[in-house]
Structures are given as C-alpha cells and as structure tokens.
Amino acid sequence: MNKVYFVGIGPGDPQLLTLKALKILKRAKCVIYPGSLISSEMLNYLKKINKKANFFDAFGKNLEEILSVIMDNLSQGHTVARLVSGDPSLYSSIMEHIEIMRDNGISYEIVPGISSAFLAASRLGIEFTYPELSNTLILTRLKGKTGGAEEEEIRCFAQSRSTLVFFLSSGLAEDLANTLMKVLPKTTPVAILYRLSHPEEKVLFCSLENLAQTMEREKIKKTALIVVGEILKLTNKSYYKRSYLYGKK
User: Comparing C-alpha atoms, which of 4, 3, 1 is closest to residue 82?
Assistant: First the structure.
C-alpha cells in the first residue's frame, strides 16, 4: 500500500503552494479536497497540473465516507493527497484521520502549508511581533459549538498584551468583543481579514467596540480572521525602533 499525504495548500493562491506540496500533487492518483474552503483558482490549477488524478470533494461527507475513499485508493497502490486549507497543524481536524492511519499501520506524512494568519500579516504590511508593542503571537478561537478557548482563557491572553489572531470566530463577533472588552480598552484596534487570496477578499479595520457591527454591516459570518492588538498601530505609524541585530556595532 502507498502513503497518505496531508497537504497544506495555504489560503487559496496557487502561488503560495510549497515546492514539496506541488511535487506530491503532481503525482497523486487521488486528491481529496475541502470543497467549502478551497478556492476555484486552486482547484482548477490542481486539475490542470494533474489530469490523471481522481478528485473527491470532502465537503458534506462524514469521516467514514472519506476514509473509505482513502482506503480504496491505497488498496490499489495509489498515492493519496488529503488537502487541508492553510497549514495542517491549525484547526484542520486531521488527527481523526491520523488515528485511523496509525491503527491500520498506514504510512502518512504531513506537509506544511502557509497559514492564513501569516498571509494576514502580509496583507496588513506589518510584523506581528515588534518591540514595545507585542512580543508574542497567539493563534486561538473563541469557544463555540465545536470547541475553542473559554472566555477566561481569552481574557488571560488579552491581558498578556500579545497579538491575538482569532480563527473560526466570525459568527461569535459580539461575544468575542464583549469578552475582550472586559480587559482591553474599547478603542483597541482590530483588523478583519475575510477570505484572504480569494476574489472576494476584504481587509477591514475598526475598534474593538465596533467589531460586531462592522461584521454585521459587511455580512461576514465565517471564513475571516480577526486580529486584535496594539500591533495594528504599525499599519499607519512608523516607530523607527532599531533592532539589536541591525544596530551599530
């Protein structure tokens, strides 16, 4: 039997695929993709570079149906690529697949991809860490129906003066804002980054107190990152802080 690759395909732009991911995707016989998350540009590109592969949309399928496709292709000696948007290490739910791979002695490999969090920093034109503003980056999500950090945990994060990047929290904007405003000023800057690298991409700025109404006005309920913190001051101000690395000797 062959190997299963869990391939991070980044936020949507085919040009952000890693060389390793591209190499695997050119030779895979079975490509399982997340239909609700993959961009049409990415899917069309992959079908163009590998016309012999069978493409299977995992959207709306349960774990058993997806595993059935994987096992059937492995039994035929096919290489299977299970695509994951962004990077597989963040909110991808690949462990429920991997546990089955382990139980059945099936070889697998995780191929990193570019997380939308880092594309967010690129779109904002800033670093997420900067002396005196923020030295720590926290990637998290507010607890919803499918899990996440409790309010107390979120408040602790906020008190640390870290840069906060919230995944999977768009539908909880009001709860998120209310939780954060218990420890942060209402004027704390916020950036909303919607469907990065997709045609409908939006980058919006607001204060923490206006987060929920901004999301409602723009009709954003999912597929957005929410960045919170003083680090966003870098988007419109220069601090001229020299690092030790590039300081005069």
Answer: 4
- Distance from C-alpha of 209 to C-alpha of 188, rounded to nearest angstrom: 8
- Residues 227, 191 contacting (CB under 8 angstroms): yes
Could you tell me if residue 165 is left (phi over 0), alpha (psi between -120 and 50 degrees) or otherwise beta?
beta
**Pair 79, 5: CB distance under 8 Å:** yes
Strand, coil or helix: 180: helix
Give me the residues paired with residue 10 across strands: 86
Which of 96, 111, 126 represents a domain boundary (last residue)?
111
Quote the domain boundaries for residue 95: 4-111
User: Are the C-beta atoms of 113 and 5 separated by less than 8 Å?
Assistant: no
Among candidate residues 145, 167, 168, 140, the one with its CA nearest the CA of residue 156: 140
Q: Which of 90, 111, 132 is the last residue of a domain?
A: 111
Split the chain (249 residues) into runs of 10 and give each run's mean pLDDT. 90 96 97 94 96 96 95 95 96 93 95 97 96 93 86 94 95 95 97 94 97 96 95 90 65
d(C-alpha 82, C-alpha 97), whole Å? 10
Q: Name beta bridge partners: 203.
A: 193
